[in-house]
Specification:
The chain is mainly alpha-helical. The protein is about 60% helix and about 0% strand. The protein is built from seven helices and no strands. It is globular, with a radius of gyration of 13 Å.
């Protein structure tokens, strides 16, 4: 239990730092993904990162994620779900839409 705690605390701190670094000015979806999502979901969307494993981040390329509607993905990004934080206050709605399009492209890059 103590070992799990020692892994989760640094991951949580890193996630908080990433959240604070996201600005309203970003509109390039690749850059936005890199600064907002890649820490947990990985550059390829696999979720195969230390924080991703600790928080059980979804593989964004998976059928489970890709079968969700754009509205469902937008809601998860905006409001958060489970251990995923909400980004609605940090990312403009238009940029969330671009991010959903970017996420849709991840399985094609496998």
């Amino acid at each position: 239990m103590r070992e799990l705690f020692l892994h989760l605390v640094p991951a949580a701190v890193v996630c908080c730092l990433v959240l604070s670094s996201v600005t309203q000015a970003e509109s390039d979806p690749a850059k936005l993904y890199q600064t907002s999502c890649a820490l947990c979901h990985g550059a390829d969307g696999s979720g195969d990162t230390a924080p991703g494993k600790a928080f059980h981040a979804k593989d964004l390329r998976s059928d489970e994620v890709q079968k969700q509607t754009d509205a469902q993905l937008t809601e998860v990004i905006t409001k958060g779900r489970g251990k995923m934080p909400a980004f609605g206050a940090k990312i403009k709605p238009d940029d969330v839409t671009k991010l959903v399009v970017f996420i849709r492209e991840l399985p094609k890059k496998k």
